[in-house]
Amino acid sequence: MKSVPGKPLFAPALRRPGFGLARTFVNAIAFCGIMIWLSSCSVSKYIPEGEYLYRGAAVNIEAPEGVDVAELTTEVNATLNNNTNNKNFILGYYQIWRWYRWQEKAAEKPEKYEDKDPKGTAPIFYNEALVESVNTLMENRASNNGYFNNEADFTLDTLTDPPEISADYTLTVGRPYTIDSLRRFWTDSSVSRIVEASLAEKTLLKRGARYDLDLIKAERQRWETQLRNAGYYYARADDFVFLADTVGGDHQVNMLLKLKDDTPPSHLYPQRISAINVYPNVNPRDTTRRFLADTVKIGGLNVLCDDCPLRPKIVDEAFAQESGDLYSPVEHDKTLRRLVNYNTFRYISMSYDPLPGTDSLLTLNATMQPRLQRRFEGEFGLTYNNARYFGPNVHLAYINRNLLKGAELLRLEGDFSYAISSGSDVRVPRSGIYGLTATLEVPRLWMPKRRKIIPRVMTSGTVISLGGKMENLSLRLSGFSSEIATNQLDELSAQVEEDPDAMESISLIQLSGKFGYTWRRRIAKSHALYPINIRFQDPRVSTPQLLDLARELGVAPGAENGASRFDRMIVFSPNYILTYDDRKKGLKTHNLFWQQSVAMSFNTIFPVGTQAEFLDSERSIYPQLETDLRYYLTFNKRQQFAARLHVGAAVPITERAIVPYFDLYSIGGPNSLRGFSPRELGPGRSAPQGANLLSSGGYGNVIFETSFEFRQRLNSMIEIAPFFDAGNIWTYKTETEPLNTDFTTSTFLDELAFDAGLGFRFDLQFLILRVDIAKPLRVPYEDPLSDQVPPYQDAGEVPDKSLRFVLAFGYPF
């Protein structure tokens, strides 16, 4: 039997268009109906006689014409969703059925189930008192929002199979009351001065505004914050009372603001710190040893400690407060963050105790328990990637959290990986990577006169890093016979003739050193400055002709003198990173994350290969800017919209940008365009190269990518998120002559790749497991080959637009 190319061997029988789909749809509807009926019937037999499952309620608000009750509707609906049974659209009351089945099994075999947690969900039965309490609660919500003239009523809707009840509420309200006047009566002049200043600066209560109890509570909380910032440690929002008079006026409220008559005297005085006692090495449950320890006085602190983990001078630098200062929550938070930033203590407690015999003095007692100073970590894994590379990888680390008793964090990390191709292509090299990195992080600035800088920052640090890595690639020379012959590489040609299985290795040695500072002045904003950042790369081979071969394979098509992975270079690139994340101040309706990095790179490239002695070195200078912007719109606890924009570019000041491959951008993967594998796109409309570690395909010095997600939480464990991704990478002025892969505004939109899909997130408490199913929608290199950039020799064929399965941990952004 013969088959015709491009046609299936057996053709399916012809069917009317849409007939199979319609039939499948009808079957699915019927199946769902049967499942609901079966689930309902199976639950009905367990329901006690006279009881009804409570299905919850709906509310209708009746208001005079022109009255906006949207905000009231939201608040009232929030009272209805509690204490109701959850009925699944397909499975009905399946969780309740599971609960009854578990109870039956536990009754039959109590010894087997006595130590197990019940399965399913216990039923919630209709309770007349519960429904009436919700009725009262809705009236209270209306009054709290200024609708003092209100009345709520309800009717019940009953079903018999399964027995269930739902309630329909009607809330009738009149016009809301507005604030007509705000009068104050103070019995304490110092408190009055602070509160009046707060009212004059910014108040939430304004004449003519609708009466709103939540705003009143927020205003009281604002006063508490102002007083505590002024040193009133005991000040509380409950010390203030708002009296409302609705007798006069037309739907207007006259308000009186005053201190409660029974406010404790200590709440009316600012508190001053008389002494600071620090216990850096105690067990929290040991209340006797701490008072027997040696005492060291330094900078207004009493450091009481035996075998102290930190030098007293280092402890003193962490404390923003001094003896004699007024209490300040800002300084308290700054001290706490500095101690946490030391990364030395597992337990930190700061308590303010009243000094006996006074009503305005406090003693600050700070208690800490050290963490284990040294730790070893190890990881072993097997890696398989889209390039069909497979092999083991090992990561080992030694961590010392307190190297010189100054909270210095030392990390010594070693990495080893070995990978071979699982395919049959003899042109794919084997790879072995060996790396060692030493990083020292000091939680303070190593610079002259740092004592003058400390009060201005919340936390600060110094980072020193040294690293080395060797990447070894093993090549079977016979796989590159055509390139060897074309470039007249006689030594390599002779090796192939002598031994068809001859192997050669290229070793790429990389050394790096970095020195810089990190600091934070505000909770949401952090800075990192690395004035020294040097990378050096040097290829090692047995014969210079091997580097000629590597350059021939690794230089991008169309580039006459392009950059290669195997160039000898030294890169000096000082950089600055600004990070703003207002989520650290708490989740709000609108949250923003912004990370901006700016680097100035000076790259010197030295010639390699057989012509090295006849060529001059080349210098490339280019600033590199990268922006990562993320926006989060939170509708409620279950719904959130998230968007991300990631752009970056290395723009040359010199004739061209020679960017080392470790500073280039790539796109695709679980945290990028999820419908594409890493390095499957770009630059521009280039077709992806095959699995070849020698190549520089899939890299560019310009990137644009954006993602959108709508996150819907189904329950405490599962979240779904439909998403859309778009982006690509390009080259820009990497050669003296323009390339087809260069970024241009005229072709920007046409060269964007699109994908969309659905994500599932599983909250396992200790981590987020993410499963994304993505489908490529548009592939830039899908055009006819005549309209593409000429493909590489080992480029892929027709782009695959099938569904992609992505397994990852954590959110993509």
Automatic annotation (TrEMBL):
Residues 618-783 form the Bacterial surface antigen (D15) domain. The keyword Chloroplast does not apply. Keywords: Cell outer membrane, Membrane, Signal, Transmembrane. Its main location: membrane. Pfam families: Omp85. InterPro entries: Bac_surfAg_D15 (IPR000184), D15-like (IPR039910). It is found in: Membrane. One of its GO terms (cellular component) is outer membrane. Gene3D superfamilies: membrane protein fhac: a member of the omp85/tpsb transporter family. This is BamA/TamA family outer membrane protein.
